[in-house]
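Q: Predict the bound structure with flavin-adenine dinucleotide.
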Amino acid sequence: MTSQLTALVAGGGFGGLTAATALAQRGWQVTLCERMPELRASGSGIYIWENGLRILDALGAQALDARAFRGFAMEQRNAANEVIDDGAFPPHIRLYTIARSGLMNALRDAALRAGVKIRTGCEVLSATASGEVQFPGGDGASADLVVGADGIWSGVRRSLGLEASHELTPEGALRAIIPGTQADLGPGGARKYLECWNGERRFLITPINESEIYLALTCQAGDESGKQVPLDRASWSASFPHWAHLIDRITETLAWSPYSIVKVKSWSSGRAAIIGDAAHAQPPNLGQGGGMAMQSALALAVHLEGVSDRRDIPDALARWEAAERPLAEHCQKWSCIYGEVSTLPDEVRDRVVAAGMADTWLRSQFLRVAMSVPTGT
Ligand SMILES: Cc1cc2nc3c(=O)[nH]c(=O)nc-3n(C[C@H](O)[C@H](O)[C@H](O)COP(=O)(O)OP(=O)(O)OC[C@H]3O[C@@H](n4cnc5c(N)ncnc54)[C@H](O)[C@@H]3O)c2cc1C
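A: Predicted complex:
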């Protein structure tokens, strides 16, 4: 690069931090604007699949410590707590689960090491295709490249006219972290994640280290007792009596919220791009929304390598989108398909899950992103 190009990244989540770090590592002068007073992960635990692990390595972000939990299967269980699918992963696909704060801190540290200037309490209201952004109070800034990594309600996406649709699903989740160990998963639960179904409710058990378990409790919007906060422990224990000992330990939960499905006309306009949930938010059924946010963010920086004149940025962004969008949309589509079983009658779901997971082609669709080799890794 002959002169240093500038980038302004709106949003300090997993996608924004990855894009900012990867651009700075390639010689860009990067400012990241996060509207919250500090960089903080919202949510409880997070699944990081093989593709996400490769990206963290490429960034030099150390999110996993010796305590991180590695699971070898996502076991499916029915209302009677019987195993309907053992959910074993192919041996070459790693999956780790940790607290979200661990991932956030690692990405923040990598960004700072790369020289990213992080401005917190800095809300970006809108952006233009020629690289201008607007802040509250009439102030603005400009950069050679603007990246909208501002999540599901992205103002950057809307101001650029890129939004095609933003749908909220009828299903949503409550999340909590409780004290617990592998022994709490009972005989046969070692080194596994357990996804348990009953009616239209789901109870997902995810160890995140040797002393904490992340729980996700999903139900439909019309399930008033299921959505209730503080948690209606009696109601959830009635649905999952085998897990009452875990439900009893829940003291605090994140409020129930539906999932977003965002579809867009394009990933960029001129010298402004959108990444992560701003571009392809999806239900969390494959545990890949964050992984995909990091994946498209790293790829963005790779596709801009060698660009030294900002007039070449739009073409590089078009190449980036052509290369990366099909996989992101595959992930979004298959995450939606996976979620469809949540409203099936129990006995039908048992058969569909067992048959679906036994089908090599179907399993490979669910695992395609995990098995992909992200650009730049
Ligand atoms: C229940 C649930 C479970 C999930 N589990 C997993 C999982 O296990 N694994 C996985 O990979 N993914 C998971 N996901 C998905 C994952 O959380 C998201 O896909 C991921 O956080 C998207 O990252 P992002 O950086 O695009 O957006 P976000 O994480 O939403 O970050 C956006 C950032 O932008 C900031 N911001 C917003 N507006 C502005 C503005 N105007 N100006 C400046 N800053 C702004 C926000 O404060 C935030 O910090 C899950 C999602 C849900 C709902």
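A: The mean pLDDT is 97.
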